[in-house]
């Protein structure tokens, strides 16, 4: 992992990253690189569409039911498949920032915050949403 202290001036903050994920020790592109917005949006759209289909089938479409179904899909598939159905379909996976298994608690934190929506819209320079930062995860290309 790059040492941010080595990239800073003696009197200032660290130099800006050249690519998203550089500060995290992730490659610029290819497998293991930070997922870019297009794939992220496509993955969320697939997951939301699945939640809508289930909501229509069981609840004749109910906005609250759709949101709950969406969160449950995230809760089930992130710890078991390493990403939601949409993530996996577009070639992404959710990993803990410092390795290991994602585990249930990261999935819960990430999914609940994602269901609130706003944390997912606030990104840092590594293109990690607040939900990923709080859960200690990063969405990467498979």
UniProtKB/TrEMBL annotation:
Keywords carried by this UniProt record: Membrane, Transmembrane, Transmembrane helix
Annotated Low complexity bias: 1-10
Transmembrane segments: 41-59, 64-85, 105-123
GO cellular component: plasma membrane
Coiled coil: none
Stretch list, region Disordered: 1-33
Name the record gives this protein: Putative RDD family membrane protein YckC
Organism: Cryobacterium roopkundense
């Amino acid at each position: 992992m790059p040492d941010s202290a080595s990239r800073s001036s003696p009197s200032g903050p660290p130099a800006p990253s050249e690519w998203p994920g550089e500060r995290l020790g992730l490659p610029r592109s290819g497998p293991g690189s930070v997922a870019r917005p297009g794939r992220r949006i496509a993955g969320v759209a697939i997951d939301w569409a699945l939640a809508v289909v289930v909501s229509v089938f069981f609840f004749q479409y109910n906005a609250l039911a759709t949101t709950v179904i969406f969160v449950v899909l995230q809760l089930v598939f992130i710890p078991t498949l390493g990403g939601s159905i949409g993530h996996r379909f577009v070639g992404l996976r959710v990993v803990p920032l410092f390795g290991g298994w994602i585990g249930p608690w990261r999935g819960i934190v990430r999914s609940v915050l994602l269901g609130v929506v706003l944390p997912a819209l606030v990104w840092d320079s590594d293109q990690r949403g607040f939900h990923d930062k709080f859960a200690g995860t990063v969405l990467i290309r498979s």
